[in-house]
Amino acid sequence: QSRLVESGGGLVQPGGSLRLSCAASGFTLDRLAIGWIRQAPGKEREGVACIASSGGHTFYADSVKGRFTVSRNDAENTVTLQMNSPTPEDTAVYYCAASAGSHCSGNITWGYHYWGRGTQVTVSS
What we know:
Blueprint: E1 3-7, E2 10-12, E3 17-25, E4 34-39, E5 46-51, E6 58-60, E7 68-73, E8 78-84, E9 92-98, E10 114-115, E11 119-123
Parallel strand pairs: 2-11
Antiparallel strand pairs: 1-3, 3-8, 4-5, 4-9, 5-6, 7-8, 9-10, 9-11
């Protein structure tokens, strides 16, 4: 019954913006850290962002720092990834994932127990 569903992916031009959402069904995200992880052909899996259960601690990959923002709305049981000024190098399938605890791992690429199916983001002119 428990699942995560990503939405908001699609085609965006370089320099534009896109917002991805992650919604939980069958359980609440209130006590869990949530990460966004991407996978692109020919590239290694990369943790993009992670937000702790409190919302006061966020972590970002150097490649997206200053451009992407992760936030959570526990009242709506959702987590959002705001993508500003994307480049073609940001093209990937983006997954949201929940940890088993309230804190992000030291390596935000790993440490998650529940995964969504992913949503495709394509950055192109």
